[in-house]
Amino acid sequence: MKLVTDTGIVFTRELRPVLREPFSLAIALAQPVVFLGLFGPLVYGSTGESLQWFVPGVLVMLGMFGTSATGANLLFELQTGAHERMLVTPLARPALLLGRALKELFPLLVQAVLIVLLTVPFGFRPSPVGAPVALLILGVFGVGLGALSYALALAVRKQEWMFWVVQQSLLYPLMITAGMMLPLSTAPGWLRAISHANPLTYVVEAERALFAGDLALRPLLTGGAAAALTALIGLTLGIRAMRNSAT
Amino acid sequence: MIRTRNLRRDFAVKGGPPVEAVRGVDLDVGRGELVAFLGPNGAGKSTTLRMLTTLLPPSAGSAEVAGHDVTADPAGVRRRIGYIGQGNSAGHHQRVRDELVTQGRCHGLSTVEARRRTDELVADFDLSSFADRGVGTLSGGQRRRLDVAMGLVHRPELLFLDEPSSGLDPHHRANLWEHIVRQRERDGTTIFMTTHYLDEADTMAERVIVIDHGRVIADDTAPVLKARLAGDRITLTFADPLDAKRAASLSASPPGPAVDGSTVEYRVPDGPARLPALLRELCDAGIDVVTAAVSRPTLDDVFLALTGRSLREESR
């Protein structure tokens, strides 16, 4: 019970600056909108059909940009003393990580809904049954990636520059090999092998299937499992790192 | 309030023997005391403070803080202590009032209680003019006042202050202390602080503990430490160096005079009482004294006598 209350306290604290500056959420949409507006038509010609393939990928990309960078906020609070002060309160240690990671849901889902609403006039047709499930999977994945980002921040807190090195050098290979922006149908075998090993591939496939209203079990289960696994690993590593974050 | 026995902390070093940062510290601080904890950089001061505030587990020994063992019941300790670290407690992107409420919630106050307490602190610490602003927009003095207010949200029995006024100008330091002293008078808070400003330790603290090389090397009130370790300084000047040398060699003069040109300096336990007799002796010996001055020792003199280093050099 205390864990739930404490997680709520941390969650609320993290959410407040976002709610105080809601416009910051819209600014973060600039990049995906550019991708959607220029990259999509460039690669796939006409809009309607290409959006159906492209929008789910952009939603995952959006989730990855935001959540994988969130550790930088913690890194900053590790420097200023704000984190240390939280450590000397009776807050349950896992709550310090859980509250932060769960807060990632909010900007992620708000932005995803905005993108969907923005693309519907241009011919994107999200399935009313599949879309909520797709957003749920995206949310679980985002919480996991956010937790991993915090774990990374805590792991490299004595060499802060390492944070961006690791984040950047993982982010793009993961995104490309997941077939997020470009289909991998013409890719050589080795690239496709990497793609199969990338959990993100399954999340992207599930998003595409669900938004299209394809409720087949396979993409739903593999995508859901990849997201859940990411969340499980992220939260486990994150909570462990948080417990040792004072020294 | 604080009781440690043989408190130790080692740090592993790659390819070498472990560094013993704290090597068996015994501390006893009673309820309501205001103690200054001093030491040069690397003396074990911060490490000790981090162990007492549950940020760092001890390697050996025991520490009971506010009635709870730091190892067995760190949550119990955290409930009862306030901690104001060297950095800034409030998040850069947060608003002042929000952070005070959050801090109250972290310490188990209900939202209503936390809001009420926040209003109180905003009034007590003169935060009202910037209470709804972002923390990132505050000046250093404002931010430090907020830090102290946050540390007192839950009316802790025991308050740890780590370099509370470092980086503040004298006006803001005085202002900060006014607030701390008022809170202490109202709640009877025990205060354990580290500081680089020895005059601050001198005027505010009732007791001074000095740590060096991981061990406590002095523990007493500032006047006792000064009298015992540093003594008063009598400075006499003479018409010429020859007189100074004769005065220094006078057998009746206090031991260990330091001659510098036509100036002679003595270290004595009770300067004001010793000076008239000394002048009489010099007069009897036919040596003319041009000027005579007594200066009381500062804590820095104590520090120098104890560690061979001046804390003032360290901090600047």
The gist of it:
Chain A has helices at 2-20, 23-27, 30-44, 47-69, 71-80, 82-87, 93-103, 105-119, 130-155, 161-177, 189-197, 199-211, 217-243. With 247 residues, chain A is mainly alpha-helical. Chain A starts with a helix and ends with a helix.
Write a concise keyword list for the protein shown above.
heterodimer; A: 247 residues; mainly alpha; 79% helix; globular; B: 316 residues; alpha/beta; 6-stranded mixed beta sheet; 4-stranded antiparallel beta sheet; 12 helices; 14 strands; membrane (chain A); transmembrane (chain A); antibiotic resistance (chain A); transmembrane helix (chain A); Transport permease protein (chain A)
Can you offer a commentary on this structure?
The longest helix of chain A has 27 residues, at 217-243. Chain A has helices spanning 2-20, 23-27, 30-44, 47-69, 71-80, 82-87, 93-103, 105-119, 130-155, 161-177, 189-197, 199-211, 217-243. Chain A has one domain (2-245). Chain A contains 13 helices and no strands. In chain A, helix 4 packs antiparallel against helix 8. By secondary structure, chain A is mainly alpha-helical. Helix content of chain A is 79%, strand content 0%. By secondary structure, chain B is an alpha/beta fold. Chain B has helices spanning 45-52, 74-80, 96-106, 111-124, 140-151, 170-187, 198-204, 222-230, 241-249, 271-284, 299-307, 311-315, and strands spanning 2-11, 19-29, 34-38, 60-65, 68-69, 81-84, 158-162, 190-194, 207-212, 215-220, 232-238, 258-260, 263-268, 289-295. Chain B has a six-stranded mixed β-sheet with strand order 6-7-8-3-9-10, with helices on both faces. A four-stranded antiparallel β-sheet of chain B has the order 2-1-4-5, covered by helices on one side. In chain B, strands 12-13-11-14 form a four-stranded antiparallel β-sheet. The longest helix of chain B has 18 residues, at 170-187. The radius of gyration of chain B is 24 Å and the shape is elongated. Chains A and B meet through helix 1, helix 5 and helix 6 of A and helix 2 and helix 3 of B. Chain A: Belongs to the ABC-2 integral membrane protein family. Chain A: Keywords: Antibiotic resistance, Cell membrane, Membrane, Transmembrane, Transmembrane helix, Transport. Chain A: Residues 19-245 form the ABC transmembrane type-2 domain. Chain A: One of its GO terms (molecular function) is ABC-type transporter activity. Chain A: This is Transport permease protein.
